[in-house]
# Entry
Amino acid sequence: MTTIDTTEPVDTWEMVLVHRVFRREFRLLPGLVRAVAPGDTARAGAIADHLSNLAGALHHHHTAEDELLWPQLLNRAGMHADLIHRMEAQHDRLHEPLARIGELNPRWRATAAAADRDELAEVIAQASVALDEHLADEEAEILPLVSRYLTHAEWDALGKRGQESIPKNKLALVFLGSIFEEATPEEKKRFLAQLPPPIRLVWRLFGDRVYRKARDRVRVG
# Structure
């Protein structure tokens, strides 16, 4: 159980930033869903698309941790095994409401039925509470272990896995805009600096406009 010898500890700021996005969107969605009038399939479709993209991004995020983070920490920080297994158990508990969202969301989108709407909103709220608990624990207890026990290359591999989940169409700009809404000016500058030059250029030319349109479609209608 030896601390990894690096010249500089791993900085986990990007994960904290992405966590803020997940928290924000899962907190907003129950109210947005409940506000949809029965039968308004156009409005339900806009929110359902956003929910589907968000749930997919969270699933990808958790899968990357399951495959690349927990095994490394268990191998190197075995004295914290109970904590790491608690993180794995929290992922498992989140699977149930996320799976139910996956069942309800397309059904509600198709008909905008009130019963499906209300159940979907409640399940999203449950997922939001469980997610808040998990992300708070991860930030307070796991990320300090990451800084201590993972190499920069291993942390970069996790970040690369996250980049693979970014869509290759204009949804990439929506994804980035969602992050930048939470970012401080310094965080935005650092995040942009890590992106390939073509993506930075496209963001600077079109990003704000594309993101505002997508955001308002969901939040305003």
Notes: Residues 1-6 have pLDDT under 50 and may be disordered. Residues 37 and 182 are 29 Å apart (CA to CA).
